[in-house]
Amino acid sequence: MKFIENMLESSNMNPTVVNVLSNVLMIVFIAIVAIIANFLTKKIVIKIISQIVRKNKFQWDDILFERKVFHRLSHFVPAIIIYSFAETFPAYEDWIQKGAVTYIIIISLLMMNNVFNAINDIYQTYDISKVRPIKGYLQVIEIVAVTLGIILIIANLIGKSPLLLLSGIGALSAVFMLVFKDSLLGLVAGIQLTSNDMVRVGDWIEMPKYGADGDIIDISLNTVKVQNWDKTIVTIPSYALISDSFKNWRGMQNSGGRRIKRSVFIDSSSISFCTAEMMEKFKYIHYLSDYIVERENEIAEYNRRNDVDRSNRVNGRALTNIGVFRAYIDNYLKHHPGINQDMTLMVRQLAPTEHGLPLEIYCFTNDIRWAVYESIQGDIFDHIFAVAPEFGLQIFQSPSGSDLRALIEETKKEEEMTRELGH
């Protein structure tokens, strides 16, 4: 500044003009120096760091570079230069230094945000990140750091000690509790969710209250994001997973089997005892031949031992078409390549209803993929519906409009035939 003033005074300028012009020139000089320093830092230093990062075998520094952590460092240089030249302007020295310090604090907070994002990205490269996510904890630390940064900025601008401001936070605790209610609830919920291993990224959950039915794609401090099967995304408050009930399908996914639990309704009027012709026919069914022979011998021995009169089919023991059908389905499932034979498998009758006798198939597929599961389930029930008539059984179906029309037409034909015979 002294050099510039001497140069201007030697040209016999007005002292006021010299003062103004020297200040302007000094500001321009400082701006040029700051811009050049920032440019050199970004183009040279950052380029050198980039080459070092790409050449080594570590992955964490690549993530730090992608998150532009090193790029934030270049912003410190202009602030330091401006702070150093503050004494050039004695009247404004204090405000210039405060502005530079405030800028440095803000850049530090922004850089800290990049660092936390990079830490989360690095952590997600490990498998444990799906079991123990840390994003919520990093967000809590970030909130605390931003709060402290704001206190430091205010303390710097008013020229007071930060400890003085910190001592007044106690009186504002109620306000902080109200403002950060969701964050505090989310923090507590996040700790409980993580410590109890209730949810992980990638888990399939169902929460009808919030319209959630899909995979968890993100767990943060305040929210859990679920991508539904229709590709919509539902955001659920973290504390809702603690206070409300939800279904986690992780157990099914880890078990290696997905449950089939569906009933076929048999028309009760089609249930009957097996005739000799039916028994002979059943012996040629691959999954029933051994069963029929074994059961025939067992029933014959029982009836002989108890001297049962078989002239009436009601007496003694006898096979029914529904019982043989149930045994057939059971053996069919035991030989099905898509059914997990190490898990529960049964075919059972439920209580009769107005729709007939429910015959429930309860088993597990050996593939948990949705499309494969539906394909296996569809194949099984296609076969059951197609094979039921071979056992003399009818699948119950409520009468439709076409059934009623056919019945009316048949009734009309019978009436016409009756009239014709009457004539």
UniProtKB/TrEMBL annotation:
Residues covered by the Mechanosensitive ion channel MscS C-terminal domain: 333-394
Matching Gene3D superfamilies: 2.30.30.60
Residue ranges constituting the Mechanosensitive ion channel MscS domain according to the UniProt record: 182-250
One Pfam entry name: MS_channel_2nd
Positions of transmembrane segments: 20-40, 69-86, 98-116, 137-157, 163-180
Localization (cell): Endomembrane system
Keyword set, alphabetical order: Membrane, Transmembrane, Transmembrane helix
InterPro entries the record matches: LSM_dom_sf (IPR010920), MS_channel_C (IPR049278), MscS_beta-dom_sf (IPR023408), MscS_channel_2nd (IPR006685), YbdG (IPR030192)
Membrane topology: Multi-pass membrane protein
SUPFAM superfamilies from the UniProt entry: Sm-like ribonucleoproteins
Similarity remark: Belongs to the MscS (TC 1.A.23) family.
PANTHER family, alphabetized: MINICONDUCTANCE MECHANOSENSITIVE CHANNEL YBDG
Name the record gives this protein: Miniconductance mechanosensitive channel
Provenance organism: Metabacillus malikii
